[in-house]
Amino acid sequence: MTRPAAAPAFDPARDAIVALIQERHPDIVDVDPAEDLIETRLIDSLQFVEVIVILEDTLGQEIDVATLSVDDFRSLNAIAHRFFPTDADIRA
Prior knowledge:
By secondary structure, the protein is mainly α. It has one domain: Non-ribosomal Peptide Synthetase Peptidyl Carrier Protein, Chain A (Orthogonal Bundle), CATH 1.10.1200.
């Protein structure tokens, strides 16, 4: 199954989010896609805003924060599922 050409891919956003985490946690080599980013404190409240900016840049549109849930950001898998459903379907 291939992604439609117009759909933004999750890979650039994932790479930027992992780089953001690695800036704060230099000991982290990779992030498990299912790891709870909030519970493990890999993303804090300031980085949460940065993640939204990364997603907006990747998607090319503003995200209505009123429609968001903290669960949308629990893991890389959750982020992919919420904001890049085509990629999430491919990886499932």
